[in-house]
Design brief:
The chain has 334 residues and is mainly alpha-helical. It is built from 14 helices and 4 strands.
Amino acid sequence: MIAPATLEVARTTPASRAGVVGAAVVVAGLVAVPWLGDAGLMRAIVEFIALLVLAQMWNLLAGYAGLVSIGQQAYVGLGGYALIVLADDLGVDPFLAVPLAGLAAAGFALPTAALVFRFRDAYFAVGTWAVAEVYRLLITNTGALGRGSGRTLKAVFPLARGTRELVTYAIAVAVGVAALAAVYLYLRSRLGLGLMAVRDSEPASESLGVDVYRTKLAVYLVAAFGTGTTGALIYLNLLRISPDAGFSISWTAYTIFIVVIGGLGSLEGPLIGTALFFLVREYLSDYGAWYMILLGTLAVGVMLAYPQGLWGMVADRWDLRFFPVQRRARLQRN
């Protein structure tokens, strides 16, 4: 006689529990850096976190929503300029202005989405880039924003350099942890399931009751908020912005490289990709134009050898996922 069995849905694995412990250790190490490291290390970590969050936001769009945007630099620039307008022109505390700049970027994303969502596939990608260029040109021709020469963040000048660097570092750690946790929880929720259903098949997801337009709009606004907040963080660290720098397509190029190398559609992939990007830049940045050629060659080589990225290769070979967003069904014998 066959023993009865029940179907159980597992939301955690031994690897995911180890991932939580590892993440807690990393956060504790980041908190200790101001006491154990120096200003140079803190600045490097701020830059690492900024690129990681940008990559996670692009991965959320392309890897989980199927929205391949090559215009996310629009929200980096808008976030950076919103920081300076809020802090210098409106008198908002420059550190409080960082998340407010993210809200401003999300506000611009609402009418932008109404336009670019009219396009599909490659047209959507090109449309997002065109909109980013429009924003760049508008700011370049706005006298109050410094036109092509840009503006300097003056609101932090009264602060001691050490204080500014310490608070900027603390904000960066908070932004990094909050972004990773928010993306993870979002993808683990019903909204995340609906999002991945839309990516796989819009008609099928609609037949299951998923509102396709609202689902895509929500993730687009979330990514714009995260990217805009990161843009404000970047220019809080650099203190000066110009249209060509803030709206440079390099921001999106770097994030695409990071996600493609690390692994599209996973939370671990951008972590691996960002670490590799920093290593490559550390050893190859002195080669000038060859640096970008080598980056491109490395990206093409990884895509040909491991289409799912480096982390995708590891996950498929050893079934190892530290931050799984999928559920696993298994039969439990009674």
